[in-house]
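1st attempt posting a full record on here, be nice pls
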Amino acid sequence: MSRADVALRVALLPVVMLAGVMLYGQAVIVATKLMPVPETGPLTIAVQISQGFLAATLNAALACYPLARLYGRAATGVAALIALAVAAGALHGSGDEADATALLLRGWALLCCVVLLMGGTWLVARRRLAGASAR
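the predicted structure (as tokens):
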């Protein structure tokens, strides 16, 4: 890898992180539209849990391959930075007025985001490196 490639990847890091955070925000909106929360009933919390998992899955599905292609072995670290930025943004919005259920649901969504984004990126990067070494 040349110095120009490394410099380009480092220069693109803020753009990639912003795109990752914005992608997660859009995934949350899509998950909310696909699975509307009922006003009352026993399924309210189950739907909210599923929304967090669906948003994290959409985010990971759309971000893992481009991250692995652009950053190679360092893709998991970049995914960790994106997950950290998403967590910081989500935790910044949580105030003292949030009840225990809202905090639990937010924590679940963040855990799903971190695990799926980092795990998926790690798997894709590993598979790409294994495929490149087999050629």
